[in-house]
Amino acid sequence: MADDARRPRRPARLDPAQADELPGAMDPAVRSEVAHTTAAAIVHQGRASAEPEVVARLVALVETEGLDVVAALWADSPPATLPGALWRLYVLREWVRRDPTTVADRFRMGAAAAPVHEVIAGVADAPGPAEVRQVADAVLSGVYTGELDVALERAASFARVLAAGAAFDADHLDVVDPEGAARVTRGAASLVRTAEELEHAAVLWRAGKLD
Predict the structure, then answer these.
(1) Is-contact 201 85, C-beta < 8 A?
(2) In whole angstroms, what is the distance from residue 181 CA to residue 169 CA?
(3) Is residue 74 within 8 Å of 35, Cβ to Cβ?
(4) What gap in Å lies between CA 19 and CA 24, rounded to an integer?
(5) Is the pLDDT of residue 169 over 70?
(6) φ and ψ at residue 142, rounded to 5 degrees
(7) Under a CB-based contact definition with an 8 Å cutoff, are residues 56 and 140 in contact?
(8) What percent of the chain has pLDDT over 70?
(9) 3-state secondary structure the chain
(10) What angle is formed at CA 160 by the lines to CA 205 and CA 149, rounded to 5 degrees?
(11) CA pair distance 89, 17, nearest whole angstrom
């Protein structure tokens, strides 16, 4: 791959609500075939390897290849598919990587409203930016080193706690910044939808139907 193709062209900030806006211009049938083939190959490679550096490279896929490259592969894949599920995991991790302070703040706000999901997500009490980054990496690593359905459910719980925190954040903003509150509310709804999609993908994986 040429150096220019590897160089990411990144927006200042990413959250899961922006995933639908990412570009890509490929014939839909070809895109679907490429998405499924690459997703299966990457998961197989990671799960077949016992070397931590291989898993680390796969977890950092967006950083090395660029968000636009990964989006071109998987962003249009339906959520009930392996590439669609992987895309949602990588988008969630990328948001955490780029804006860990906001993510940590919202996780702390949302934890009390979603205590069961807080436990499943496996985040330390009162997490800071470093802790939420570690959890995001650990969740994605679980795709390659553990049970994929558990990784999907853990990511879903993480998203649900963040959605609860975003809802609280929107309430606080409503008086001073109604437009900002509306944006955060839409982001919370997007996180809930992402959580539901990841949970469904976990069910499909257990049934042998996530491809």
Answers:
(1) yes
(2) 8
(3) yes
(4) 12
(5) yes
(6) -60, -25
(7) no
(8) 87
(9) CCHHHHCCCCCCCCCHHHHHHCCCCCCHHHHHHHHHHHHHHHHHHHHHCCCHHHHHHHHCHHHHHCHHHHHHHHCCCCCCCHHHHHHHHHHHHHHHHHCHHHHHHHHHHHHCCCHHHHHHHCCCCCCCHHHHHHHHHHHHHHHHHCCHHHHHHHHHHHHHHHHHHHHHHHHHHCCCCHHHHHHHHHHHHHHHHHHHHHHHHHHHHHCCCCC
(10) 15
(11) 13
Amino acid letter, residue 169: D
* Tokens found for residue 91: 């988008």
78 touches 84 (CB < 8 A): yes
pLDDT digits (tens, 9 = 90+) for 118-154: 788 888 777 899 999 999 999 999 999 999 999 999 9
Residue 196 has which token pair?
């539901």
- Phi and psi, residue 189, nearest 5°: -65, -40
Tell me the C-alpha to C-alpha distance, in Å, between residue 125 and each of 49, 164, 173, 177.
Answer: 32, 16, 25, 29
Token pair 């993908």 is found at 201
Q: Could you tell me the two tokens for 1?
A: 């791959």
- Phi and psi of 170, rounded to 5°? -65, -40
